[in-house]
Amino acid sequence: MRDPFDPTDAELRAWAQSGDFAPMEDWDLIIAEPLRAPTLIDLAADGPPESREFFLRCLYLLVGDAVRSGFNSAPKEDVEAVLVGAEPAARESVSIALWLARSRRLLEHPEEFQYDAWCGGGLARPQAR
Predict the structure, then answer these.
(1) For residues 86 and 97, what is the distance between their CA atoms, to the nearest angstrom?
(2) 62 vs 121: CA distance, rounded Å
(3) What is the pTM of this model?
(4) How far apart are CA 125 and CA 56, in angstroms?
(5) Long-range contacts: 8-12, Cβ < 8 Å, 24+?
(6) Tell me: the pLDDT tens digits for 3-27?
């Protein structure tokens, strides 16, 4: 990977296929951003089974951190655009559909935010689905 702080979509896809550990601690924080969302959604929905949970966790983190930070980490308009962009994948993936529904609920009810669930990976774990 040329630069783990700014991986390309192709590098994210190659890493997902590799089975390797994340290239650095908190890498999910680095890649959980609206511009990468289409790739994150694709990999969470239809990537290699062993990496789907990681990318789903990134999606929960993207939305959760935006709400937690009062939309300082990502503007609300960008988060809403990510959710709209996820609608086609949600028709094919139960985990994306659940993330989408939960995310829309959180945007409507930010007081329901729970750090461990959204930013700690709790909602992305199989038992939470």
Answers:
(1) 8
(2) 11
(3) 0.95
(4) 9
(5) 9/36, 9/39, 12/36, 12/39, 12/40, 12/43
(6) 989 999 999 999 999 989 999 999 9
